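BUG: 3D viewer hangs when loading the predicted structure for this chain

Environment: internal workstation, default settings.
Expected: structure renders.
Actual: progress bar stalls at 90%.

Input used:
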Amino acid sequence: MTPLGLYLHVPFCASKCPYCDFYSLRGRENDWDAYTDCIIERIKSYQDLRLPADTVYFGGGTPGLLGAKRLGRMLDAVREAFALAADAEVTVETNPGVGDESLFPGLAAAGVTRLSLGLQSANADELRQLGRIHTAEQAARAVELARRAGIGNVSLDLMIATPGQTRESLLRSVRFCAEAGASHISAYLLKIEPGTVFAKRRDALSLPDEDEVCALYEAACASLESLGYAQYEISNFARPGRESRHNLKYWRCEEYLGFGPAAHSFFRGRRFYFPRDLASFLAGGAPADDGPGGDFDEFAMLALRLAEGLREDSCLARFGHPIPQAVRRRAAPLEGAGYCRVTPEGVALTRAGFLVSNAVIGSLLA
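Structure tokens produced before the viewer hung:
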């Protein structure tokens, strides 16, 4: 079978950012230990199958809070339960300023090959607006410490269209990432999620209007490309060969297993997830079924997020048929409007199409 991706959700943060809708909470040492032990037991439940895997992703929350020893124990359990590829991509998310100088050497020794750091902005005023508790200098220091430890593949997160952001401040952040030595940059448009602090304060936020959002996104994309980062997904840019192999599994509709509260899985044609409830997870609660997955519409929807788009060869390999002619017919007027490209090889969204991707994809798959 095609090797799986493994996702481990660490639901702990030092503080809650006002825009964040991910499942996270504060925790203490005993919470971290109980969570680590529980994750290991869940991982062991698959050991009789000896399934192949080639990516592991510790997401959160802030996995770095757990320290290298706990994360290393979980990674050891993965190696015992799964046939982990020798060249597996192993990513840990963390924030600048988390942990001491032993964190990155410890992660490298445990087998971590990639870091994803939550920078969000290199501008102090914007960091304060976003509720971040680190500085740009700490982010640059973290990249340098990771390099020294032997982890040269480092991704930095940026947010676009944040309160008070200007084109100039955004491009400063982009240049900061390049100068710090990031091999990968995730540049996300801020989305105001229901139930967050930002949602409650929305009317008081100095947010850009729709035209300004588009201009900021296009400016960031152009700057990133000029600095050598190729766009391979709506919000993701990489140096050659540094694309996130784990996240590509999601967008290519490949199978993965998730462990931890709020973690989702797609395995043997079914989707399921653990509820956003740490106490339930620790008590042995079962994942909830989320129905079948992997049909053509889902496959196409995810593929169209990628710069490569929906490809004829991928459709033939997976479903035994080419891209349906109905999709190509619907694509024709969208191509004329500049939202997608149609070639014999497939259908792909343009940058203008990425900005309104939900509507474009919905039209293509109506």
